[in-house]
Write a structure and sequence with these properties.
By secondary structure, the chain is an alpha/beta fold. It is built from 4 helices and 5 strands. The relative contact order is 0.17. It comes from Halomonas saccharevitans. Keywords: Signal. It holds the Pfam family LpoB.
Length: 202
Amino acid sequence: MSRLFTLLLLVGLSLTLTGCATATRYVDPANDQGAVSMGLDYRDFERAATESVDSMLESGAVDNPNGGRYVLVVSRIVNDTMQRLDTDQLVKKIRVDLLRSGRVVTTTAVGADGAEDQMSMRVRELRNSEEFDQRGVERKGTLQAPDLSLSGKILQRNRKVGREQQVEYYLQLSLTDLTTGLALWEGESQVIKRGSNASVSW
């Protein structure tokens, strides 16, 4: 009898806890009024990327005086924060916005850590293979070398402000002309958050 009572009690408790759980729902990123954490989230990435691209476009650094579009390669974006950030998420947003501007194309055939898309070189390994029609195999000298390189760093600084903590994030980017090695544009976007000392930023 006690076993049955215990079992019923556990089932009842489980149903009670399930009934109290918050229902899963969709979030509209454009109108998200949800809680703000001390760490970086998708809203911060969105804002920082948009600010950076707008500044880059307004500066004229990606306007090719010879017409056409510059070829851009993304170099290394260093994460110097206490969080495990996927810097590719930020970089992808920047690349998408630059591509949409119509002034830049990005290459995936080269990168700081090798080709982003290995197929650019793999398909060229089909040359002289008897299994493939050589008329469809990519010729030598068709890959486009990049003109510009985008590199940067994400920094974090924690400060005490009265009884609260302030967490400052800085996205610093440099656009380099690969012919001359000169920086054509540099920008910094800031995300500053202030909250309880009990909040964590990692």
